């Protein structure tokens, strides 16, 4: 893959009290690439994701996405960027239990000002892409773990984000459900050309990526093409 970098991070440092979570990280993520970030618990990989996504501001260093500074933006601008250009999938989905699957998926569009009827139509289409066309009116408690995570993926991708940040997206699933969810997610992002930063501790999950980087003690320890 010879695409140019979409995300560029230079010299990222981040501490929490006396603990140095990131110690001068440099990283490029290519446009359209699925990048797996691996490392043991406490290595700094989730802190790296949060800095790349503008959830956290590094103590020093810079993050740019498509040539635009993320680390230099204020909180309101970073929130807007996360809503409009980034998608997020977390280990436990973080679906709102009081909403149906369709309403969970359509929520980012509603927050962007999309009319409710259009958001509902788009949510139905997004669920259908993940084989959940009959699940729209179910609540999260009525879904299996794999189905709920597919709903979370549909929600993350409904705005057609430039970047999908996935933090252990299959970590709470059994091996068969994890494989099915991961395959479905990666089929969609590769079809759409979405760049993915995938945090995982599982080599089997990382094997689906185009490239792997290993984080150890807050530094990039190795890159596996």
**Shape summary:** globular
CATH topology-level fold name: Rossmann fold
Name of the CATH architecture: 3-Layer(aba) Sandwich
* Count of alpha and pi helical runs: 7
Class computed from helices, strands and strand pairing: alpha/beta
Strand order in the largest sheet: 6-7-8-3-9-10
Question: Total domains, how many?
Answer: 1
Task: Assign the CATH superfamily.
Answer: P-loop containing nucleotide triphosphate hydrolases
Poorly predicted sequence stretches spanning 5 or more consecutive residues: none
Order of helices and strands: EEEHEEHEHHHEHEHEE
CATH class: Alpha Beta
Helix amount: 25-40%
Distance between the termini: 10 Å
Total number of strands: 10
Q: Report on the biggest sheet.
A: 6 strands, mixed
- Mean pLDDT figure: 91
Radius of gyration: 17 Å
Strand content: 25-35%
Pfam families: ABC_tran
Keywords: ATP-binding, Nucleotide-binding, Transport
GO molecular function: ATP binding; ATP hydrolysis activity; transmembrane transporter activity
Domain ABC transporter: 7-225
Top keywords for this entry?
single chain, 225 residues, alpha/beta, Rossmann fold, 6-stranded mixed beta sheet, 4-stranded antiparallel beta sheet, 7 helices
């Amino acid at each position: 893959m010879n695409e140019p970098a979409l995300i560029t991070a230079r010299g990222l440092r981040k501490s929490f009290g006396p603990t140095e979570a990131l110690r001068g990280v440099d990283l490029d993520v290519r446009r359209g690439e699925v990048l797996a970030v691996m490392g043991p618990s406490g290595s700094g990989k989730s802190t790296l994701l949060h800095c790349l996504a503008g959830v956290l501001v590094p103590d020093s260093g810079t993050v740019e996405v498509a040539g635009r500074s993320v680390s230099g933006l204020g909180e309101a601008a970073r929130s807007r960027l996360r809503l409009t250009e980034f998608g997020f999938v977390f280990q436990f989905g973080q679906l709102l239990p009081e909403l149906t699957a369709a309403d969970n998926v359509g929520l980012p569009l509603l927050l962007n000002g999309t009319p409710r009827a259009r958001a509902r139509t788009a949510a139905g289409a997004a669920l259908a892409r993940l084989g959940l066309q009959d699940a729209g009116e179910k609540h999260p408690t009525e879904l299996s773990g794999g189905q709920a995570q597919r709903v979370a993926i549909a929600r993350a991708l409904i705005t057609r984000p430039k970047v999908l940040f996935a933090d252990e997206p299959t970590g709470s699933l059994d091996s068969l459900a994890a494989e099915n969810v991961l395959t479905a997610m990666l089929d969609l992002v590769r079809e759409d050309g979405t760049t993915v930063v995938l945090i995982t501790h599982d080599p089997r999950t990382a094997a689906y990526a185009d490239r792997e980087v290993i984080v150890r003690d807050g530094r990039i320890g190795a890159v596996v093409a």
